[in-house]
Amino acid sequence: MDIDSPHSDSDNPPTAGAAAAAVGGVGGASSSSSSSAAASPSRYESQKRRDWNTFVQYLANHRPAALTLAQCGGAHVLEFLRYLDQFGKTKVHVGSCPFFGHPNPPAPCPCPLRQAWGSLDALVGRLRAAYEENGGGRPENNPFAARAVRLYLREVRQHQEKARGISYEKKKRKKQPLLPPPPMQRTATDHHPPPPPPPASAAASSSSSP
């Protein structure tokens, strides 16, 4: 399968296992450790560190010349994301495919496998945070927050929604109706008000009776 990447065959990109582990935790099972769970990093932090190491290795093996972190821009992030497509597992139908827009194709087809939009979006979020944590510079210079990267992710999302016949919209949780508070129950200690006095006519008739 052709690689959707501007690099030539002479490049030396990250290994397949490292690059695949950079998206969605594919092949990224953490090794066992004798340290306690409280001392070990979270799953998110472990994945973020693997993602960052893979990207740094990608920059070091960049052709025609290696890139430093300071030289990295939004265009290099796009190259990295396209490079990762070769490790994708999501079938994205082309326009000429009879299953284009079909969420559940009834038969296999030769359409390419790509990284799912959700995996790329999560990857960019982790690398954006890792860039700032590793002294990449000011947040406004973060290449993972570049406008070109945001537009690319939006295009990938829209294209995959049409090609796969699905929607990435998050389902809104229905708001529960507000119920009135329950009536207050009287207890044995509650004080009842005294009964009202009898009418004046009743009081007069009772006093005149023998």
Automatic annotation (TrEMBL):
- PANTHER family attached to this UniProt entry: PROTEIN G1-LIKE2, PROTEIN G1-LIKE5
Q: Where is the composition biased (Low complexity)?
A: 16-40, 201-210
The main place the protein resides is: nucleus
Q: What are the entry keywords?
A: Developmental protein, DNA-binding, Nucleus, Transcription, Transcription regulation
Family to which the UniProt record says this protein belongs: Belongs to the plant homeotic and developmental regulators ALOG protein family.
Q: Which GO terms describe its biological process?
A: mRNA transcription; response to light stimulus
Renumbered residue ranges of the record's region Disordered: 1-46, 160-210
| Molecular function (Gene Ontology), one example | DNA binding
Residue span(s) of domain ALOG: 43-172
Q: Which domain of life is it from?
A: Eukaryota
Q: Does the keyword Transcription regulation apply?
A: yes
Q: Which GO terms describe its cellular component?
A: nucleus
Keyword DNA-binding applies: yes
State the name under which the record lists this protein: Protein G1-like4
Instruction: Give compartment(s).
Output: Nucleus
Q: Which intervals carry biased composition (Basic and acidic residues)?
A: 1-10, 160-169
Q: Which organism is it from?
A: Ananas comosus
